[in-house]
Write a structure and sequence with these properties.
Radius of gyration: 16 Å
Helix content: 25-40%
Structural class: alpha/beta
Shape: globular
Oligomer: single chain
């Protein structure tokens, strides 16, 4: 029976969605379509029951305050040291090694410098064509940040106007757009689900 449960967790991993701010229900639906079990996460204890985590968009300063209120900042950093995290928009800001405009705290899990609201104000939001893994897709930018620099171990998976918009660093993904809002679907959730499936905990457990 234990073997069957292990096989099930590999084929349909449990992926949490940080449900403090942002359109976490759209991420839940996208994860279910990509073959994962989605679970809302609001406490540190709930991190123990998942194989990966999505940090959705929102407002990064407000999200930091909520993380502090729920005593989640350090548990998230510890989780990211062991398991995959996918950050979108504000979530990507939180994953970065350095945040500018203005400078603020981050989890330092992806080696990149990211600028908040790099594409302008709400009125400058847009839907743009991009290419992901050789396939045409779209990116929904809403007060999106811009990745200004990536480290040598951070791989660029997609760009827009010569700037990285989707990057990979070890087990983690970061996107400056909102894949959960693509009208025709977006392959990024499936990419993350596959990453979680194939990920092996460094401890060997």
């Amino acid at each position: 029976m234990a073997g069957n449960n292990s096989q099930s967790s590999q084929s349909r991993p449990v992926i949490g969605v940080l449900a403090l701010q942002g359109d976490f229900d759209a991420h839940r639906a996208a994860l279910e379509c990509a073959g994962a079990q989605a679970k809302p996460v609001r406490t540190a204890a709930e991190l123990q029951d998942i194989h990966g985590l999505i940090i959705p968009g929102g407002e990064s300063t407000a999200m930091l305050k909520l993380l502090d209120y729920e005593n989640l900042f350090e548990p998230l950093r510890e989780f990211g040291a062991q398991k995959p995290i996918f950050g979108t928009c504000a979530g990507a800001i939180l994953l970065a090694s350095k945040v500018v405009n203005p400078v603020q705290r981050s989890l330092d899990l992806v080696d990149m410098i990211i600028e908040r609201n790099g594409y302008g104000r709400q009125i400058d939001s847009r839907i743009a064509p991009i290419e992901i893994a050789g396939h045409s897709s779209e990116a929904v930018f809403i007060r999106a940040p811009i990745i200004r620099r990536v480290g040598p171990e951070t791989k660029v998976l997609a760009t827009y106007h010569d700037a990285p918009v989707l990057v990979e660093a070890g087990p983690h993904l970061a996107a400056t757009f909102h894949p959960e809002l693509s009208a025709n679907g977006n392959p990024v959730h499936a990419l993350f689900v596959d990453k979680v499936r194939s990920f092996k905990n460094p401890s060997g457990r």
